[in-house]
Please model this.
Amino acid sequence: MAHAVKSRAGSRLVRIAPLASLLTIAACSGVLGIEDLHEEPPPSGGSGGSATSGGSTGGDLGPSGGNTTTNNGGNAGSTATGGSTATGGSSTLGNAGDTGIGEAGAGTVGGSTVTGHVIDFWGHKVPEIPIEVGGTLTTTDSQGQFVVENVPAQYDASLMVHFTGNTTESYGWVYQGLTRRDPTLQVYAGLDRHEANIDVTFANEVQSDTRTLTFAMGGPDGSFEDAEEDLTSFETSDDYWRGPTTTQETAHALLWQFDAATSLPTSYIGYGSEVVSLADTTAHTAINLDVKATTIASGNIGGNVTVATNSDRANNVYLRFSSGAKMLLLNDTTAPNAFSYLVPTIANSTVTFAAIEGDPFTGNFGVVHRDGLAAGNTTLNVTIPAPSKPVIPADGASGVAVNSPFSLLPGNGATGPFVVQMISEDTYDGIFIVTANKQFTLPEVAGSTYGLQSGGHYDWRVETHGSFASVDAMAGPTGFMDEFGGADSNVEPDGEPKGPHNADGSYTISYSNRFTAQ
Model:
């Protein structure tokens, strides 16, 4: 059965308590048993040239290196990522990232400076947090920047984020096997959460049993959506954001007709928008949107889907606004692998198509999406990637120690690098490991030993965000997180696009293996 809208289901928020019980702060304790188990030699450095076959001189694009995915590099440039400057590597070889961003200079000898940033899912700089780079402890400054000298050619970087949500939360992040001199380390969340009380009313929202009205808000710091067949007015404090105590968002409302048998859209008949200033106060902000019937142009998008397992299939279509807001236009759970859907043409918006398998909450979830679409895009051909599998420790394992081996099996079309998450089911402390390794042991985090509580229960699973060439490529200027994998402050994605990214991609997350610590 196809559904015109998808109801808002509250996810089980996995909250992370302060890590005092999990991370024993020690004076620069050594890395605990990180095994150098690369399947291939570590990537060699250098920012690439700008020609597809590599140039005789380095590229001049600064941190982004080469500008094509086939760039094999040239001699290092003289910008921040190349040559012999304070932040450049000394290698003459570079490899481009899969998104067209060349990997920064790695250097063939140690001792060069690393200058990087920490950002969250929304691209905000995360200030004043502890970070360890190549064995040296420091903190990010007020702009989320860190500078560390005398860093080896290949190094790990780890950090701790601590912030408020519904509760106080902390997470550890580790990036393994970096070589670039200008890494941007992305975390899901690192800034405090704020929310506003809004009272929304609609004018001319004439509805019926076959009409749906959707309301959405979005800005640079967050987004919110509500959709009902009988939505006329409502009050909510669910519109929250990360970062500043005040923000500006745009409210959007769309009214459309759908087929009673299939629930798929048949026409779009009303739209309104309003720019709104929001503040984290108890005061209420009034929003009134006029969705008087008007002529809205529309046309079809269509194509074909190749599935991985054909389990719990769905096709979703979203309207994505330049404001950062998004609307779910349809959730087709009949999920035809050959599809055609009617979409509107509205100023300052594009369409995202997503082919989905599985459930993002329980795992074994894969999505491939095409973005920036418009009516008339009818030749979409997509393949859903298969999630990876956590192997060791197996589900139900016991006696797992901090130096116990971990291993995973990549899924077809999701071959890594990976984001491994491990969460305590008792205290909700957690760690994320960004790695190309398929075998590893638990690392230290920002100079602290990562410990397992004796008898504690832990869940671990594996994410992939697109298909990157290396961890270096994942540490590019805009981060690596796919728009469908953005958990706000917890480790459970909601399977919906959000955030500043609006580009073709894919995301997978495995099921969890639970184990008991020694």
About this structure: The CA atoms of residues 212 and 229 lie 5 Å apart.
